[in-house]
Amino acid sequence: MNVLVFDIETVPDVESARRLRNLEGLSDDAIANLLFAQRRQETEGRSDFLKYPQHRIVAIAAALRRDDKLSVWSLADVGASEPDIIRRFFDGIERYTPTLVSWNGGGFDLPVLHYRALLHGIAAPRYWETGDDDPAFRYNNYLGRFHWRHTDLMDVLSGYQARATASLDEVAGLLGFPGKLGMDGSQVWDAFQQGRLAEIRQYCETDVLNTYLIFLRFELMRGRITDTAYAAECQRLRDYLRAEDKPHFTEFLNAWPAA
Question: What is the pLDDT of residues 127-150, one digit of tens each?
């Protein structure tokens, strides 16, 4: 198995807004509120979710399952710059060429990563490979929606039908996994303003854990692993979380009942 499960957390890109709209002198909060208000106006009050180029990445969490090893962590140190975080993500793809696994990664995480990598001039040749240099990528690459090198579980499980999609929390709960713990995406901006970046990273890591568990069940469903292998992978994750002995991992374990 060579799988990298990932999730990103974002906040409004107030610095770009300040520069592009000549908003010098306004606080970050005031600029963010301006962006949210404009978005509500554009959507006639239906949503204040910002357009993708207006998001700034503050955390990327990952679970790497490769050979006989499993690791779950947030990329780069707390307080690392956005370019450093993004560069770490694409460097992992360059190094391992893993199968990427996400929940709505094709609909949100990867497009945001594209815009931000473009902004910061970050090269990612392996990720953008479509067969010109490596023929193996011609019919199975990270960019093709119906390819498997990136498996967006929300997209696949809904049959690529927007009306059939479900949230990560809903599906995790359905399968008996912990789901969201302590925070959701709508609270990230407030937490970021309060300096709670470590908490945001932990929340992102637990989203990755839920996604990884759903992926294992998906692999079982499509016959890629046996019942025995599925149970062994779940036990491997339990053992890893216990050994790491971190509060948010312990909370996750306590909310994940034994089979």
Answer: 999 999 999 999 999 999 999 999
CATH of 2-254, one of 3.90.1150.10, 3.10.129.10, 3.30.420.10, 1.10.10.10: 3.30.420.10
> What is the Cα–Cα distance from 105 to 168, expressed in whole angstroms?
12
Is the pTM for the entire model greater than 0.90?
yes
pLDDT digits (tens, 9 = 90+) for 169-197: 999 999 999 999 878 778 899 999 999 99
Going by C-alpha positions, the residue among 63, 65, 68, 73 that lies closest to residue 246 is 73
Q: Are strands 99-102 and 55-66 parallel, antiparallel or unpaired?
A: unpaired
Contacts 24+ apart (CB under 8 A), 75-79: 78/197, 78/198, 78/201, 79/197
**Which position has the token pair 């609270």?**
187
